[in-house]
Amino acid sequence: MGFYVVQFLTGLSSAAALFLVASGLSIIFGVTRIVNFAHGSFYMLGAFIAYSMVGVLNGVFGFWVSVLISAVAVGLIGVLIEFLILRRVYQAPELFQLVATFGPILIIQDLALNFWGPEDLFGPMAPGLDGAIMVLDTPLPEYDLALIALSFLVLGGLWLLFNRTRWGTLVRAATEDRDMVGALGVNQAWLFTGTFFLGSFLAGLGGAAQLPKGGATLIMDFEILAPIFVVVVIGGMGSILGAFMAALLISELNAFGILVWPESTLVLMFLVMAVVLIVRPWGLFGKPEALGQHGQVGPPDQPYRALSRRANMVFAAGLALLLLLPIFSGDFTLVLVMDMVILSLFAASIHFLMGPGGMVSFGHAAYFGGGAYAIALLTSYFESPMEIAFFVGPLAAGVLALGFGWFCVRRSGVYLAMLTLAFAQVTWSVVFQWGALTGGDDGIIGIWPSDWAGGKVAYYYLTLFFGLGGIVLLRRTLFTPFGYAMRACRDSALRSASIGIDVTRQQWLAFAFSGALAGLAGALFVYAKGSVFPDEMSLARSFDGLIMVLLGGVKTLTGPVAGASVFTWLDDVISRLDYWRLILGSLIILIVLAFPQGISGFFRDRFGPWFDQR
Q1: Which tens digit of pLDDT belongs to each residue from 182-225?
Q2: What is the pLDDT of residue 133?
Q3: For the chain, which residues score pLDDT lower than 50?
Q4: Helix or strand or coil: residue 282?
Q5: Do 167 and 173 form a contact (C-beta atoms < 8 A)?
């Protein structure tokens, strides 16, 4: 009996740190409507700063003062990022703000690496709490009880702040209707800044408080990112009590689930999130009226139209250059261009869903990696020739998207995006942990094309044919009856339904079609690299695709190609330099601030009249 009581208290202790970080993210999203992917970096900074402060301040009092100072320091860093970057993109499309929060992740990673070094840092035990107590003859660390007490203290403090102060009342009002709060004369800029400080403070507090249990590492930002999003979505966007209950639910499920199903540690929380979003899409403590269109990109500034004569001439010249490239370039350049083409197709599949389809996917890597793994498994276990396996990859990805899409398209906005994230993480967890079939973290290697396509030049032309062909197919589909119906559903689901269009079926088929083309990109990728690893299905790969689309411009058809090409080129060039994360993150932020309409959007606005002449 004592073992199970201690296991419950251990889960409650884990929930405490998770709640501290997730509550901050929930507060920031509730007011600013920004999906802040840099929140994990604030958590990481809290741990690193606390590690340095504890080395200076000694004793019980010094430890807790170090934790508090670290949280305040992280809060001020959050204010600096909000003031310098996010305040300038509040009027941009909400999804474009996502890219602005990705830049600081890279910058903070490089700064942390150079300041604290690459090694994991093990935090000291909290003075006075470095022992254990016996609970029914079973030991329980004293610090676990301290974390539990801290979580309840923070929960009570937040309740008093939001229910007994004027500032808290304004924050709750902004969560409900921030436009109305602005119309009443409230300075929204300072309200957003204060909210960002509080959210960042809580993230830093969570990172600093867990230092004696988990230390400080350079990967803890991404490790915490998925769990806190799960907690926020399950609890309900903007709900502090919901974040606490969801953190408790997830932590206890993990604490006891590992006893029954050891492999469930990665997949269980995403399964729970998927179930909650399907049954109650606004979360356990969220409000149905909050289920709006947050996160949707909206209709384009102008309708998509066929290319003019001048535009066709420019694209023909570009195609001719690509066809002649093997004559005057080496293998390295061919590999780089192949990567650009493959990732352009992947980005175009996401754009097809986001822009014309009006549906945001945070987990599109499931179909990219799904297509690659389908080919790798066929080749490894059945020795399937490339001529057969290559076409099975996109088909398998399309079937996977068809299954997930049936649930996803019944939601909208950020809830649809989070459901795609949940399904993608479930798929990644299965691939990562089912080592007997997929090789686990070691991946599957030795997947090469047939002899006739094995040379660099031959596979280059094969990549051009299928990669560019897939992009053209996505574009041409927009000008078919299916494409027009899909865009009509995006612009007005009610009007589309009134004229006889089955909106759900239309979006479902668009979801599957987009997934199949992402699988085609994965098929090209696995033969180009000769291997596939779980990273190709991970959250980071999905975010890369989103960044490519948004950097290029979500409201232009050439946006994903431009964004993927620029991102791939920058990643290749800058990754060879010292401080490459810092440079790449700074460039991403610069592009966001200088070209809020995206790279292609900027050139369309600048040179569009010339291209439109026929």
Answers
A1: 777 777 778 888 999 999 999 999 999 998 888 899 888 888 88
A2: 85
A3: 289-302, 611, 614
A4: coil
A5: no
Contact criterion met (CB below 8 Å) for 268 and 253: yes
Amino acid present at 161: L
Give 134's DSSP letter. E
Give the separation between CA 351 and CA 353, rounded to whole angstroms. Answer: 5
DSSP secondary structure code for residue 290 in this structure:
G
Q: What are phi and psi of 135, to 5 degrees?
A: -115, 105
User: What does residue 37 show for φ and ψ, rounded to 5 degrees?
Assistant: -75, -10
Residue in the structure block whose two tokens are 């941009």:
92
8 A C-beta contact, residue 389 and residue 524: no
**CA angle, 412 then 174 then 543, to 5°:** 45
Strand, helix or coil for residue 185: coil
Give the per-residue pLDDT at 610.
53
Burial letters 38-66, b for 16+ CB under 10 A, else e = bbbbbbbbbbbbbbebbeeeeeeeebbeb
The three-class DSSP label of residue 182 is: helix
Counting every residue written for the chain, the total comes to 614
Q: What is the distance of C-alpha 408 from the center of its chain?
A: 16
Q: What gap in Å lies between CA 408 and CA 361, rounded to an integer?
A: 9
Q: Which residue, among 205, 86, 226, has the nearest Cα to 150 in the 3D structure?
A: 205
DSSP 163: H
Over residues 466-490, the pLDDT tens digits come to 999 999 999 999 989 999 999 999 8
**Three-state DSSP class for residue 454:** coil
- The gap between the terminal CA atoms of the chain, to the nearest Å, is 80
Report pLDDT for 208. 93
Place of tokens 């507090």: 205
Residue 85 sits at φ, ψ, to 5 deg, of: -120, -60
Residue 219 and residue 9 in contact, taking contact as beta carbons nearer than 8 Å: no
Q: At what angle do helices 2-32 and 142-164 cross, to 10 degrees?
A: 30
Please identify which residue in the block is written with the tokens 């969220």. Answer: 286
Q: Provide the pairing of β-strand 444-445 with 531-532.
A: antiparallel
- Write the CA distances from 137 to 6, 14, 132, 141, 253, integer angstroms: 10, 21, 11, 13, 23
- Closest to 351 in 3D by CA, of 518, 501, 506: 518
d(CA 231, CA 421): 13
Q: How far apart are CA 300 and CA 304, in angstroms?
A: 8
| C-alpha to C-alpha distance for 464 and 411, rounded to whole angstroms | 36
Q: According to the model, what pLDDT value does residue 252 have? A: 86
Q: Show the tokens assigned to 170.
A: 């304004």
DSSP characters over 515-548: HHHHHHHHHHHHHHHSEE-GGGGSHHHHHHHHHH
Which runs of consecutive H residues, i.e. helices, occur in 383-492? 386-408, 413-433, 435-438, 456-477, 481-491
CA distance 93 to 100: 11
Amino acid at 437: L
Token readout for 368 is 């990219």
